[in-house]
């Protein structure tokens, strides 16, 4: 049996990881929370050499890094793992590639929305994000994605998680992800397995 994926898609600093943790606490079966930030924070990237000394140019490696992350997801799902993935699909081309990679899997897409002033406040408070990323994401990323459910991340993470789980449990077909796959010409998007 293949795994299922709940995608939390929203701007940088929108609260995706916080909602993911709250969702993991209430799912009826174990879901693994996976994001590129986990790999970065675990030391998988040579941060000093990429971002501080400039010995390596992040721009030369960025696309391969994210493509590798995306291509790992079908392996997790194919092995039967249920996933919560918090991610940012920055462009329509990126959304198309993501959909192509996961076409055929059960993907429930959640839009995580947050007002711009709050995004920018969180970005400054975190201190680990490049200033301006939240505004860039806010202005672009939701335009090329469809969602099965949308949350406002200024609400309590526990309330958002409960609402997501309720919507996921009673979801209808075709899913937003299946509709995106059809629109992008990536196949039926029917559940694998």
Rg (CA only)? 16 Å
Largest sheet, strands/sense/barrel: 5 strands, parallel
The helix-and-strand class reads: alpha/beta
**Secondary structure tally, helices:** 9
Overall pLDDT score: 87
**Percent helix:** 40-55%
Give, in spatial order, the strands making up the sheet with the most strands: 2-3-1-4-5
Distance between the termini: 6 Å
Shape: globular
Beta-strand residue fraction = 5-15%
Please tally the β strands and state the result.
5
Strand-and-helix sequence, N→C? EHEHHHEHEHHEHH
Poorly predicted residue ranges: 188-193
How would you describe this protein?
Mean pLDDT is 87; it is low at 188-193. By secondary structure, the chain is an alpha/beta fold. It has nine helices and five strands. It is globular, with a radius of gyration of 16 Å.
